[in-house]
Amino acid sequence: MTSYGLHLESGPKRRKTMVHVLDLLGCVAVGPTTEEALAATPDAIVAFRRFLRRHEAARSAGQADGALDPDEPVETNVVEHVTEGEWLGNGSPYIVFGPDLEPLSEEEVDSLVERFRWLSGELADWARTRTDADLDRKPDGGGRTERAILLHALGTPGPYLAAALGSAPGFGRVSGAAERGEMPIPEAFLRIADLAADRIAQTTPEERRAVRELPAGPRTLRKAVRRMLEHDWEHLVELSRRPGGPRV
Question: Which domains are seen in the chain, by residue range?
C-alpha cells in the first residue's frame, strides 16, 4: 500500500475544494465540499496511476517495468489545508506549498516534461476525433463547450512558465492561432508541448531553484510545472465525463 500526502485548498466554509497529490505530480481531485473532494481522491489517484502506467508501457514497447501498480491500494493523509486566500478551490495562483520551493532535478525535468507530453498528446488525440459540431455543441445542463475547454487548456502553460521564469516566448502565438481557427487544435497541443519542453530544458540550475516574488504570490519552476500538469489533467477528466469524452 502506498501512502500519499494531500495538500488542500478550500473556498469559504470549506466548500469548493481542490486536492493536490504532490507525491503524484499532476494528480488533483475536486469537489463542491472538502468531504466530497477527499472522497474522490482515491479514485483520482488510481486513474492517474493508470494513465502513467499506460504511457510507460507504450514507451517500453508493451513491456511495463513493474515500478507502478495502478491498482495497488492507497492510503492518504492531509498534510496541509489552506482555507484563507483568494480564488481557493480552483488551483489558486496565490498558493505555494512547501514542496513547490524545492528545485527540480535533471531527472525530474525529463520525467515531468515527458508526462506533460503525454497529457498534451491525449488531449490532441481526442480532439482529432471531434467534429466542429461536437466541439461547439452546448452541453446538457450548461457549461463550456468542448472547444472552449480545449482552448482554455492551451492558453495556460505559457503564462505559468512566464510567471516562474520571466519569459515564455511563442506560446501566445500558438494558442492565439488555435483560437482564431488558423491552426488545428490537435496541432496546437503538440506545439505547446514542444515549446514547454524546450523552455524547461533551457533553464539553468539557478532558475530551477529561484523563487520569484510576484503580486499573485511566489512562483517557482516546480510550481509552474505542477500547475501545467494538474491543469491539463483536470480538464482531461472533465471532458472524460461527457458523452464521447476521452478515456482516463
Answer: 2-82 (3.30.160), 98-240 (1.20.120.450)
